[in-house]
Amino acid sequence: MTALTNDLAQREMGDIFLVLDDYHVLTAGPIQQAMTFLIEHCPSQLHLVLATRADPPLPLARLRARGLLTELRAPQLQFETSEASTFLSQVMALDLSSQEVTPLHKRTEGWIAGLRLAALSLQGRGNVEQFLAGFTGSHRYVADYLIEEVLARQTEEVQSFLLRT
Q: HSE (CB half, 13 Å, CA atoms) of 160?
């Protein structure tokens, strides 16, 4: 890591973004130690982006205190009702009233994947009110319902692709 940080610091180039997705699967101590070193010694042009489902074992408190950490947590990623309405109308081409959007937003907790799956399930349905009446349950059950509804309407090839991804 010393060689990497020194090499990056000496290069005259623009900003470099290193994005590590699913960082939560990296659990080995040596990796965490190397990342801590990289974070504490990274040159100013290096921007490290960690996408993770749990706080990594890194010096987060110290980074926060130094103003070197920007965090996006679940509340910042969830859509507001107005954003859900815009997404459903402009992206998914659904003509829903605010009385129809509100329960969808609430039941999907504003998560874009849930809203998208709900929209896919709604497409081609004549009775939106009936669909919404049956669209209940906890977050897990909503997801189960959407998966069953969306998958049941797809070809075997598309089902296989969706399950793999």
A: 3
